[in-house]
Amino acid sequence: MKLYVTSTSPYARFARIAAIEHKLLDQIELIPAQTRQTDSPYYSIIPSGRVPGLVLDDGTIMEESYLICRYFDAVGNGPKLVWPAETYGWEYGRLVALTRSFLDGIAVLGREVRRPENERAPSIVAHEKARSARLADIIETQLDNETMTGPFNLAQMILIASIDSGGRYFNWNASENRPRLKAWADEMHTRPSIASTSPFDPL
After folding, report:
1. Between the N and C ends of the chain, which has fewer C-beta atoms within 10 Å?
2. Tell me, what DSSP letter sits at residue 37?
3. Which domains occur in the chain, in start order?
4. pLDDT tens digit sequence for 104-119
5. Is the pTM here over 0.70, yes or no?
């Protein structure tokens, strides 16, 4: 299999984490994807230009991080990472949606602040900063839930990727003045699959 990723994409990070958790790295060739470039050869493989992109040995192409994580759940070893939404009385599905909203806003903000200053939209920056802060405050109150304290799963992957991407994209410490979030993130960073996929490290 060939897995196309970038070191900074939180969505590609999910796939890398899942591959490590399922002991699939020896079956996967990790390839840096050239994204946001005119006429990148990557676009002939994944026309949308999104990462991650997975090419199976038979030539089948998959994109979208959650689909790829589910595929790794099916073919890899160990417990599944993507669960039915109704797990824990729908708390798992609710927290996946909440953390995904958190991450999507951080990704939008990250793209905006990395533009040349004269191309940035101040209204978007202000809106997404406010939204990220609101969601971080809500998440601070949700960390005793079984979804976030129990077996490793997609909601935990999304949340730690969100926190780390905020630090990588625009030097935002989401856990500042949020002690429960800080303690949770510090513990998560000791997990080998998390530590070895830091967005601050090159591929």
Report:
1. C
2. S
3. 2-75 (3.40.30.10), 91-195 (1.20.1050.10)
4. 999 988 888 888 888 8
5. yes
